[in-house]
Amino acid sequence: MPPRRIRAPARPVNIELDGRTIVADADASIASALVGAGELLLARSPKFHRPRGPSCMRGGCDGCLMRVDGVPNVMTCQCTPREGAVVEQQNVTLSAKVDLLRATDWFFSKGMNHHEMFAGIPGAQHVMLAFARRISGLGELPDAASPPRPEGVPTIETDVLVVGGGAAGLATAVALRGRGARVVLCDDRHALGGALLAFPRGARVAAADAQGAARGGSVGDVEVDALLARSLEEVERAGVDVRLEATVIGVLEGDDWLFVHPRDGLVRVRARAHVVATGGHDPTPLFEGNDLPGVMSARAAGRLLRDGVLCGERIVVDGDGPHARAFALAARAEGAEVEVLERASVHSVSGLSRVRSVTVHDESGRATRRHCDALVFDGPVAPTFELAVQAGAATRHERFGYVVLADERGRVLPDPNPRDARPSPALFAIGEVAGAALDPTAFAARADALSAAVLEVVGVES
Amino acid sequence: MSGKILVCRCEDVTLHELEESIAKGHDDIESLKRYTGFGTGWCQGKWCLAACARVLAEKGGDAALPFTPRPPFHPVPLGDLAVIGDEPGACPPDEPGKPGDPLDH
Ligand code: FES
Fold it and tell me: Which of B50, B98, B101, B102 has the most CB atoms in a 10 Å sphere around its CB?
């Protein structure tokens, strides 16, 4: 069964997908609305034209790229719909469902090594390259030039810039305000909460989870929505300058960071200290068909459920973690048949344009196959280290990704060989980006220590 | 059904290609990225880097450091970036293209 809506949109708006009208929720993403209408195949990959669907619901993959109102390559999981928005598939050669160029996928069965493709065969190489250039790539040019932006980049001056409005960033912003610092908090989504919003509504996250225990933390027994409501209220009361849909895209000078906002364009934040609370990217499972629509992270499936969309009727969950557990519980409560794999690993998923079955291997290597609509995976996240490293942070490689190194008070250790030679003068990191497991209680305690350290550096005169 | 395992979705790089490239001697993260093209697509490594680094480390390669993350962290329309040219101090006109200018790569 394709995914379906289990709750009507709270603020319905109509959008159009390839001529069909779909009711979306003005407060949820366009991608959620499409999945809720049974559409998982939203995009095509650039070389092989493989079918792609949302994998992260968090702006970290290519699974939801579409043309929206004449603008190509819009990450539809990161933007909310307006009434009458026109959404189209891009990168297809016949119709959305049947892409002729899919044949390239079967033709190049192991991959396409452009270094050696027909190399040495006179003529063939050039023909092949020309062909590859024509079929590759993403989207067509926009219908119209983008409207001109106001000249220059506006600057916001503040004491501390906190990047990321998840559990760690929220706690940090409140703690810093408590000590008298002016705080700008940027988050790239349309609502604060970060990975907390990847728990289905009503989720309780019960005691010490495997991921937390393994990394020396626990989520504790928390009612996620209550916790979130409390944090948002604290942020509001504390007078944090919150910027939503503000995607921090880079570090321009040590203390000049830039964000982009869909309406305001580019904005500069000039702060005396920076706290990176950017969380983590989804883990990437490696098995055959790992890019098939219907394979998604537990965080993505949880975000969909929060938006009132269930990703399938028969769901296999692979990997452990608070999001997987909360998702499995909530999906069962909605009537889905959920199997959580234990002592077995996914060998492959198959299906032509979306997941139809999954083959798992048990401990002895015996393969069994079950039919399902979705494969939901979870595991330790890969720290979102990019901005911190741009600002001069040192990292350590772990199995799950690159951890930003910070001392016990959250101050980031500088990269001994900084790449752009302009480290931020006062750089701090907290939460999953620093390798901690998602644990709001632990983050709050750490935020307190961190804010004291930040204040020592910026010395706010109150 | 083709049995591809993707290590990079945005650029359609398969595990098979990645392992072959490592075996050919592209066994540090920057050369592996340049040779296979992983991490150069839409997500700029958000989906693929950790997985590729893990495979590289398992094969005995050097995955100690990530490849250099550059602005913009997230795709931005050129029109939004264009204003920066008018900005005093953003890219000083007397030092065009000085190395390390994040908006000049
Ligand atoms: S970027 Fe939208 S689903 Fe991953």
Answer: B50
Higher pLDDT, A436 or A1: A436
Q: Of how many residues is chain A composed?
A: 462
Q: What is the CATH number of the domain that holds B44?
A: 1.10.10.1100
pLDDT, tens digit (0-9, with 9 covering 90-100), for A24-44: 999 999 999 999 999 999 999
Handedness of CA A380, A382, A388, A393 (dihedral sign): positive
Cβ–Cβ under 8 Å, residues A88 and A67: yes
pLDDT at A443 over 80: yes
Single residue among A68, A101, A136 that ends a domain in this structure: A136
Q: Which of A113, A348, A399 sits opposite B54 (nearest CB)?
A: A399
Which of A39, A42, A57, A282 to probe ligand 1 with, by most ligand atoms within 8 A of CB?
A57
**Among candidate residues A332, A350, A377, the one where a domain is terminated:** A377
Is the CA virtual torsion A303, A305, A307, A310 positive or negative? positive
Reduced DSSP (H G I as helix, E B as strand, rest coil) percent helix, strand, coil of chain A, to 5: 25, 30, 50
Number of domains in chain A: 3
Q: Closest residue of B to A398, CA-based?
A: B54
Residue B91 in domain: no
Q: For A216-265, write each residue's pLDDT tens digit.
A: 444 457 789 999 999 999 999 999 999 999 999 998 765 789 999 988 89
- E-assigned strand segments in A125-173: 155-157, 160-163
Short-list A143, A130, A160, A53, CA closest to A96: A53
Q: Do B83 and A282 make contact, defined as CB atoms within 8 angstroms?
A: no
CATH number at residue A275: 3.50.50.60
Q: What is the pTM of this model?
A: 0.90
A155-167 pLDDT tens trace: 999 999 999 999 9
DSSP code for A406: B
Contact B2 A105 (CB under 8 A): yes
Domain residues for the domain of A173 are: 155-281+381-458
The CA distance from A274 to A56, in Å, is 27
Residue A28 belongs to domain with CATH number = 3.10.20.440
* Cα atoms found within 13 Å of the Cα of residue B1, Cβ hemisphere only: 17
Give the atom of ligand 1 at the shortest distance from the alpha carbon of A64.
Answer: 2
